[in-house]
Structure formats: C-alpha cells, structure tokens
Amino acid sequence: MPALTSMGRITADIEVDNVEGEGITVYVVLDEAQPVDLIIGRTWLDLPHIAYTRIGDRVHIGYREDEPFRNFPIDENISRICLKALEATKLEKDTVDLVSSRAESIENGLIMIENPSEDIGCLLEVKDGKTCVPLANIGDKNIEFLKDQCLGRAEVIELCSNVKVKERMQSSNNLDNFKEKVPIILSDINIDSNIENERKQELVQLLNEYRDYFALNISELGSTNLAKMDIKEVEGSKPVCMKPYKMNAPERAAIKEIVREWRENGIVSDTRSPYASPVLLVKKKTGQNRLVIDYRHLNSQTIKDKFPLPKLDDLLEQLHDYSFFTTLDLAHGYLQIPLAENAKQKTAFITPDETGQFERMIFGLTNAPAEFQRLMYHALGPLCNLGVLCYLDDILIPTKTWEEMIEKLIEVFERLRSTNLTLKLPKCKFGKQEVEYLGFIINKNGIKLGSRKVEAISKFPQPKSIHDVRRFLGFTSFFRRFIPNYAIKVRYLTQLTKKNEIFKWEKVREESFERLKRELTIQQILALYNPEAKTEVHTDACVDGIADMLLQLGSDDKWHLVFCVSKKTTETEDKYHSSKLELMAIVWTLERLRQFLLGISFTVVTDCQALIYMNAKKSSNPQIARCSLLIQEFDFEIRHRPSVRMSHIDAISRAPVLNSSDTLDSLIENKLEVCLTLSVEGQVLMMQHADDTLKELILILEKDNEDRTKEEKQKVQNYVFKGNRPLMMVHLSLMMVRGKDFIRHTKKYEEKYSCEVS
C-alpha cells in the first residue's frame, strides 16, 4: 500500500462495540486519502484488557474477562515488539527488499511477524537489537519510510528443537511475476446498457481470464515479439547532436522524475550515443507534466517508411446485418513496439542533467504510424479476413449474435497473447448496438454518415443579413460543379446580393437555402476516404470559430469533400492574435482528422501567409517548437491561398456549429499546448498578413503590373513586394508600425530593410 502523509496526530479514547481503549495515538490524513472515518490497528487491539476473534468475515471484540473471551488461553510469555526503521529508507515500486530495523525490548533472539489470515509467519533473527525486515511494495509508487517509523510488530518466540532456520534472503527481487493484478469488475467495462446482466457477467469473467492483456498502468504494458522498429537515414546523414533546451529548477526536477520512471519501466536506458535530441517539458490540462522529445532534425534525415493503409470502402462494404459491435484500443500502442539495436542510439535524448535512449518506439518518430499499422496487420492479419476490421489503432469486431462476439473476442485475445500486446480497457467498448467508426455511424440497419462528418454544412445557420447570404453562396459555389442547375437553384438567394437590395428572408428563400444544404451532403459530393488519392486540408479561423475541410481529388479530376467540421472559439481563443488562431486551427484540424492523415503525404491550405514563415523545423526556440511537436508525426506542407479563393471554408468558420467546449485541449489532452513565439521579423510578417489594409495591398502586389487597375496602381505606387513582404519606399532608418506601436530609429533595420510596413 502506498505510504500516506499524516497531517498531524491526536490522542483519543476509542470505543468499539462498547469496548473502550484510552490514550490511543490517532494519525490524521486527508479525506481523499482514506474512504472510511477511522482505521483501528494493533495499537488498540493489543491493549491487555481487549480480546477479539474472527469468525468468517466478521471480527468479534470484547473485554478479556467477558464471555466468550474469558477462557481464551493467554501466553504471558508472548510479548509484541515494534520494529522501527534504523534510517530513512525508500522502497522502490514492484520490489521486495530487506529494510534494516531496530527491535525494541530484545537484544538477541528470534521474533516472528504473523500473517493473521494464514498459519504461516515471517521468522527473523535479532542480533544486538537489530534485524532486517523483508518488505514488499506492490503499489504503483515508491514508498519512503522515516527514521524510527514503525515497520510492523512481531512476537518473541522460542523454536522447537526440530525447527531449523534457513539462510535468509540476501537481495531484492522484482515482483513482476508475483504481483497480483487488480481484477476487472463490471463498472470498469464500457458495455451497452441493454445487455442482460447474465451476459455482462459472462464478459467480466472472460476479460479476467485474459486479465494479463489489459494494461491498467504502464508497468503492465506489453512488448511485442512480432516487430522491431528500425530507423534508416538518408546517405550522408550525420548524427543529430543538439544542446539541451534551457530549463528552470522546477522543470529540471520534473524531467528527472519522468526519466527515472521511464528507466524503472524499461522504456529508457543509459546511453553513450553520438545522437542527442533535446527535450521539452509541457503541462497537460490536468496540470501534470509531460516530456516530449524534439525529433524534428532526426525525422528530416530519416528515410520515410510507407505502409499501405486499407481502403475505407473495402472495410465498410463488410459491415451489414450485424447486431453487436465491439471496438478495442491498444494501451500506449507505440510503446509496445521495441526498437532495433541500431535504432536505439538514434533516439538518444539530452536534458540539462542527463542523457538516455529509448528501448521502445516513442511518439514523434516520423515512421511510427507506418510501423504501428504494419504491426497491427501482422498481429491480426489472419482475422482480418474473418470479420475483424483494423485501421491503424481502430479495431472493430462486428457480430450477429452475442455468442459470436464472445468467440471473436477469444480469437483476438489469443492473437494478442501470442504477440504479447496489451489493451487499454477504458477505451474499449463491448456489445454496442451502434458505434462510430472512421467517421461513420454503424448499426444493424447499415452505415450512415457520422453526425460530425457534415454537420458544419447541415447545421449552417439561417442567414440574418445580406453579408451572411454572400458567405453562404461563396461556400456553396465551391461545389457548384456537383449541383445540377446550380445558378437556377440559388437565384432567390443571389437576388439579395444585388445593389441596394433590402434583406427580406421569405419562404421561397428558406426553401432554396435548405434544398441547397441537402444537396451538398449527398454522396455525389461526399466521397469515401481513399489513402491513395491526392489530399488537401483547408483550414480557416476567425474570432467566431474554426473550420476545416478534408478534400480529395477523385478519378473525375474533381475535388470531393470527405469531412467537414467547425467549432466555436472559446473566450480565451477570442483574444488570440489572428496568426496564432490560424496556427491553432491547423493543429486542431490535424488532430481531428488524425485517423485519415497518418501515413500519407498531404497539403494544408490556409489564407494566413504568415504561417509559411513559421518554419519550425529551422527553429531551436522551444516555444515555437512546441507547436511543431504536436504535429511532427504528420507528413505535410503548408500552402498559402489568398482569402478571396477560400470563401468556401471562410463561410464555415464564421458560422460554427460545435460548442466551444470542444477545444484543442479536449482533443489532445495527452499532447502539447499551443504556444507561439517569433522573432521580430516574424512578428512583423504576421502583423502584416493579419492587417486588413495590408492584405488588400498584398493582393494587389501579387498581381502582375499589367493586370492592375488604375486605382490599384495608385494604391501601391509607393510599395514593392519582396520575399512575400510588402515594403514601403520611405526614408531610411524609419520602421513604421500601424496604429498602436511605435516609430523608431535603428541601424539594424536600416541595413536589413528599406522599411517594413506593419
């Protein structure tokens, strides 16, 4: 049991079943640490006037002179002594060790610690008032004993002549093979509420039969014997060797503790590798620390591993006429894959105080998704043709009957047993009548689009102004090629956009609006995801909301919508600088669409040109790096597209449908928070591209001179466009900042720029 820290102690008289003991020392702990009001120990029970006996699972307490305790035999020669720690001692988790102690009231002799539930005890020899007590820590945390803390109580005994004392244990042993795992109970299982109790208990029994293959903590994690990940670098690559990022004292202490836990669980080992990637410490939403390795430089020189992903239509066409659906999720899937010897040294990391290398595959390595998909293919391969579906870490078992589900589970569990993989029980769902799988709702009636797949379209709010109508038309026109007679169907809406037209929302316009939304969500426009198709992710963000679209180029050479979603911004997000909000939109989107985007190359399209200058792969600034680390497992490039060509996604972001509680944190709770820090030049660039006035100048400057109107030429006559930056031709040494900043003289900027306009 983990040690508890006492808040203090009191002396009290305690009465139990009308039996009173006086002057008892009581230690006080927090309510959260102890579910009962009071725990009675041997200090009270061993008082000379108190007797007790156990019958079944009940303890009967009384005065020694009372019936039925009066005739209990009393051995006056037996004396109980306290064994106190000789010095402050730490007992590591999952270990049994000998702890030096001082035995009160005895200098030499034999003592025994009884096990009240068994007819056996622990025999110890005392010499010069000292002995060693074997203690086992089967908890998940280390236990620290203070000097003179009571480790237990023992009785002084004399041995019979035919009893021999064998050699005592000399060293500590790991308890992995002896630690009793906590059994699974019904409340631990996510099972359909309509399942009968008898079947629920059958499932509980089955899961406990395979209890070893459910990891409830990191010490129970499996390590597969089926695969080892290697890291191959392009020819001519040099070992990545970087300096550690600067940390303050509390951060360094937190890092040491995390690395120590990794070492104890066999995830990290010592190293003398020539490689050294720096680490970043970030806080999760829960306030806990997480250590992440910055593998961007290693990934940039790693040969990419491509493993084909199954096609969604091939998977989905198997799903019909099923009544029970079960989904399984591996526990820390990446950490269950060991590294090849050659790869271990390449994962070496450096902190301000130490170095280490990984023994298992870790988050952040560019080929980790492909390696994981390969593992799942080989682990479940024989079952994939027998009704078990697997897409990355999404395992689905559809069955027609409960009995068939149990049989399939046994087959899957046996495969996991043979490959030494473990599942994460809280993320598994059993016997569901309906599940969401890869963006689709699946039940016994068949397959339908997931509620979130197109809700940004189906729940698009009714326009309240002419400006709202223009936004909606800008969005729908992006897909006009899929809508027959598009111009005719929107004519009542386009009438509202005419000059001097008064906004009046009539029934005919409402019908046109709703009909258009319905046509946008039909299968002709919406396509099944194809991992082999050219893929783009369009994102947009504003103070109203965040939106994203997953588009793929079809065989008809047209862009088809695969997924579309939006969310409202929170009060905190409303205050973000526009470029930071755009960056958050990208991170949120990639995490949202992770199941589609892992293992493929794709393009992120945004109208925020400033993000292109945030090339985090070239930055050693930890705060910039945090953003990049969130998405370093994806293979993508960012491309800018002027906002005039992004009206389809702009309309969705300004009419979000998801609640603002669906935040970035809720999607990536176990990952990193979004932070943004740029150089002065980077800040200027971001300010330029966030300013509406300068956006207009940029759009004009992007045009060839002969394509500019006379009015446009007049507007930009004092500007030039270099390196995607608008420069104003003014006197040297002036740096102009619009609105609220300052004008200052600096030779640095005089030499570097004509003048930055921001």
TrEMBL record:
Transmembrane is among the record's keywords: no
Pfam (any one): RVT_1
Domain Reverse transcriptase: 263-442
SUPFAM superfamilies associated with the record: DNA/RNA polymerases
Record's keyword annotation contains Nucleotidyltransferase: yes
InterPro entries per UniProt: DNA/RNA_pol_sf, Retrovirus_Pol_polyprotein, Rev_trsase/Diguanyl_cyclase, RT_dom, RT_RNaseH
Keywords per UniProt: Endonuclease, Hydrolase, Nuclease, Nucleotidyltransferase, RNA-directed DNA polymerase, Transferase
An MF annotation (GO) of this entry: hydrolase activity
PANTHER family membership: PROTEIN CBG26694 (PTHR37984), PROTEIN NYNRIN-LIKE (PTHR37984:SF5)
Designated name of the protein: Retrovirus-related Pol polyprotein from transposon 17.6
